[in-house]
Give the backbone structure.
Amino acid sequence: MVDLSLKNPEFGADKIAAMVRRGGHRVANQRVRRVRRDECLTVPPPSKKVSRRGVSTGRLPQKASHRGHVWTWDFIHDVTVKGGSFRVLSVVDEYTREVLALHADRHIGSGKVREVMERLVAEYGAPGYIRSDNGPEFVARNLQWWLAGQQIKTLYIEPGSPWQNGYVESFHDKFRRECLARELFYTLGEARVVIGDWRWKYNIVRPHRSLGMKTPAEFAAMQPCGGAPVQTAA
């Protein structure tokens, strides 16, 4: 006697019919469906997969009010001429607009994100908040635990709401137009050099209207980290 597993909700009519036919019996899929329907053994629809989301430990949105108050990070992708894609992890201070890091690599997981963050915290001090989407690299538990240990609060935007991370989206638009879209990178090493030069010019040479026509580095130098902001004339 062939076990039809009619009560197994994970088995559809096609699977059960195939099992019966392997047992030497002739049966059509439709026959199995009719038997299941008559016996009220219909298969429930599969449950919708829910994307993993990070837990915000700060209020969202949180507008930066001074240097080091809110950092934002995200990924942007590109390819090399000799083949192979790479991604760039960007970290930006929302208040000063200073680009703290543009780390390019073939693969960047949560471990590498933490390494970059450790270096930045050692150089600039820990921010009050870090804003990001719910990418797997940013919601990884080991990274969340490390951020909590550094007393850095997380701000995760709602899925499908990139405008909640407007600073990094605006920066990536400039980065794409002024660097990635204008250059042909033959190797990852070349990409790192060109991207590093562009970051230096962005921070040191290029003035910003939102900063009173000062460069991010000039504006950041005027701001005591964690203290009262210094206003500039527009």
